[in-house]
Write a structure and sequence with these properties.
Layout: H1 4-21, H2 26-29, E1 36-42, E2 45-51, E3 65-71, E4 77-78, E5 91-102, E6 114-118, E7 138-142, E8 151-159, E9 168-176, E10 184-191, E11 196-197, H3 200-206, H4 232-245, E12 246-254, E13 262-271, E14 282-291, E15 299-306, E16 315-319, E17 322-323, E18 333-341, E19 351-356, E20 361-372, E21 376-377, E22 387-392, E23 396-402, E24 421-430, E25 439-447, E26 453-454, E27 458-462, E28 466-476, E29 483-486, E30 489-497, E31 504-505, E32 507-520, E33 524-525, E34 529-532, E35 535-563, E36 568-592, E37 604-610, E38 614-630, E39 637-644, E40 652-661
């Protein structure tokens, strides 16, 4: 009893620590409190200010900060911390703030509409979106990367640059089928320019009649190009291709868009918890504009997004991180993208990116696909010209932007958040076909002479895949007393992961045919007389030969295997044998002496009695150990297995077989 007080004190101490980390603690309760939106200024000069919960710094990460996306209730928006309002008309506007907590260990503040009543138009009503960066008519942007359990805003902007797409259909495709489950749910949509709901089936019906026109040329994001003339058939084929890629879509129709108009759709997307298994994956959503003028080509804007576990503007992404091992080869190309953002108060002139390259990949095959800010290679640049330098080593790669101007997010006068961001997209090949084991990469980013910022790990995983196979073999056993085993010939099928390099489970099923076990009793001496064909003979002895024929099925529900290398594999498991049919034959033999025996008479006389066939007569089990040699990941290979039956006449058996996997 003298130790009770210290134990109780220790218990209370750990309990207090646990309670401090539970969602019911005040720190976590703050995550459910929406921002307080405050309107400042006079009626003709209004500004919004947000009061948000204190940030909770992630240990070891750069300084945490908020980024902002404001939906202002009239079709305009802002990424500014304190946006100015530019309402042209009086009325009540619903303002929404989507704040993102970067390098913070909590949840993003929830969004709640805040009504703002405008009694007279704002004098300075000019508003610039700074949204479009290409020459196309449609683009898309999100306010933050999707995080499981959180919402994000998908903003689709469309316009009529050349005056030839004044009306048409807008489509958003999401939830890629390759992931096998839905990742996003469209929970709310808001439009401000009279867009009407439509359907994909109606649009496809409209495109049934083919039109004459040149070959199609689609406009793709993120730097889309203006539409060109095409045909209904090509547009329909593109829509059907989108249907085969995505499982979800949303359709709206717009009209009467002027050349100077920029109009926007606000789509609230919820990232489903199921997406957590694909954290750090690269997923896409595609926006599409199909003009009512069917001779005009549709424009397509594909947006890549990284599914994240926490919000960080500096990220390493691997596109199509799930690799089909069956169809890949040495020339398989991987595409990485490193995103970075200058979140400081001033511009950066130099950005250095160092990447740890997995040993499976060949650094000499790296090719730059796209960079931002756009500049030339340093070996072609004159002194002090903006350029990018590429340095390769055996296990790393370095990209260095020199003499650039990358504004800081907190820099005075910076209104375009995108101007503070950059990226490097590059491809790389394998050295050879790798082992089927996941591998990952990570990058360090240095702005000027600041401390490095380390990105997430981008992990490549191989699609598990299944490999069916066929097996043929022969079971035999050494003599065991008076019992011998003949057969059976085994024909079977196996199912295992395709070409695994880690321990794995395999299931098997066999059909056994031609199996026979036989036992013969000892000869019993018998000196009696017998009559055969009217002659009297002397009996030398008697015995019996009992033979059992079986047709069986064998199942291997538990088989644990490991491939030591490409040529040798071992395994252990357990087999269950069901005797489907069993027939016993008894042969009684009488041995005659040579005394009195004419030459025409055999010296053995037998009589055979066949018993009735028994169905599903018995059930047996056998643990086993196994070894295979050959091309064990695909086949052909040969195997040798030792089995010890738990019951029966012949307990120890051996199975010699050949296997081929597809």
């Amino acid at each position: 009893m003298q130790h009770a007080a210290p134990v109780l004190t220790l218990f209370l101490f750990f309990s207090s620590i646990c309670m401090a980390q539970t969602p019911s603690s005040p720190a976590f309760q703050q995550d459910t409190v929406p921002a307080e939106i405050v309107v400042q200024g006079a009626d003709d000069s209004l500004q919004l200010v947000a009061k948000l919960r204190p940030l909770r710094q992630i240990a070891g990460a750069p300084t945490s900060f908020y980024t902002y996306f404001w939906e202002l209730g009239d079709g305009s928006f802002s990424f500014s911390k304190t946006p100015e309002l530019h309402y042209k008309d009086t009325g009540t506007y619903q303002v929404r703030l989507y704040a993102t907590n970067n390098y913070d260990d909590g949840k993003a503040p929830p969004t709640k509409p805040r009504p703002i009543k405008i009694k007279k138009p704002v004098k300075n009503s000019a508003w610039a979106s700074h949204f479009f960066h290409g020459a196309g008519n449609i683009e898309m942007k999100i306010n933050r990367n999707p995080k499981p359990g959180e919402d994000f805003m998908a903003l689709i902007g469309y316009r009529n640059v050349a005056g030839d797409v004044g009306s048409g259909t807008l489509l958003l495709f999401y939830n890629e089928k390759q992931f096998g489950h839905a990742g996003f749910d469209l929970t709310e949509k808001r439009s401000y320019h009279g867009e009407d709901s439509g359907s994909l089936s109606s649009l496809l019906t409209k495109l049934e009649t083919p039109e004459q026109g040149p070959d199609m040329a689609f406009a793709h994001g993120p730097r889309a190009t203006p539409a060109t003339v095409t045909s209904n058939a090509a547009t329909k084929a593109l829509l059907q291709s989108m249907q085969s890629t995505y499982s979800s879509h949303h359709v709206l129709h717009y009209s009467n868009t002027n050349k100077t108009d920029e109009q926007f759709l606000f789509l609230n997307m919820h990232t489903l918890p199921e997406m957590i298994q694909d954290t750090n994956a690269t997923v896409t959503m595609t926006a599409m504009l199909v003009p009512d003028n069917v001779l005009m080509a549709p424009e397509v804007y594909e947006l890549e997004m990284a599914v994240v576990a926490s919000h960080d503007p500096n990220r390493l992404q691997l596109k199509k991180h799930r690799i089909n091992y069956r169809f890949m080869g040495k020339k398989k190309e991987l595409t990485y993208k490193i995103q970075f953002q200058n979140t400081g108060p001033g511009p950066a002139k130099r950005v250095a990116i160092g990447i740890a390259v997995p040993r499976q990949l060949n650094t000499q095959t790296i090719q730059l696909k796209e960079i931002s800010p756009a500049c030339i290679a340093c070996d072609s640049a004159y002194q002090l010209q903006s350029c990018i330098d590429t340095v390769r080593t055996k296990d790393s790669i370095y990209f260095v932007f020199r003499n650039i101007y990358l504004p800081g997010l907190q820099q005075e006068g910076v209104t375009d958040e995108d101007s503070t961001k950059g990226f490097v997209r590059y491809s790389i090949l394998f050295k050879k076909k790798p082992r089927k084991i996941p591998f990952s990469s990570r990058a360090a980013i240095i702005f000027d002479k600041n401390e490095p910022i380390y990105t997430n790990r981008a992990t490549a995983r191989f699609i598990k895949g299944f490999s069916p196979g066929i097996v043929a073999g022969y079971t035999f056993a050494p003599n065991s007393g008076d019992y011998t085993l003949k057969g059976p010939l085994q024909l079977g099928a196996v199912l295992a992961p395709f070409a695994p390099d880690r321990p794995y489970f395999q299931v098997e099923a066999y059909a056994g045919i031609l199996e026979k076990t036989s036992s013969e009793t000892a000869i019993v001496r018998d000196k009696r007389d017998t009559t055969f064909n009217g002659q009297v003979y002397l009996i030398g002895g008697r015995n019996q030969l009992i033979t059992t024929s079986r047709q069986s099925m064998q199942l291997v529900p538990l088989h644990f295997r490991y491939n030591i290398n490409n040529w040798v594999g071992v395994g252990v498991g357990a087999l269950a044998q069901i005797n489907i049919a069993s027939t016993t034959t008894t042969e009684s033999k009488v041995y005659l002496t040579t005394v009195q025996q004419p030459t025409v008479i055999a010296n053995t006389v037998s009589k055979t009695i066949k018993d009735n066939t028994q169905w599903f007569a018995s059930l047996n089990a056998a643990p086993f150990a196994d070894i295979q040699v050959g091309k064990i990941k695909s086949g052909p290979a040969i195997g040798f297995r030792y089995l010890h039956q738990l019951s029966g006449d012949t307990r120890d058996r051996f199975f010699l077989y050949a296997i081929y996997k597809l």
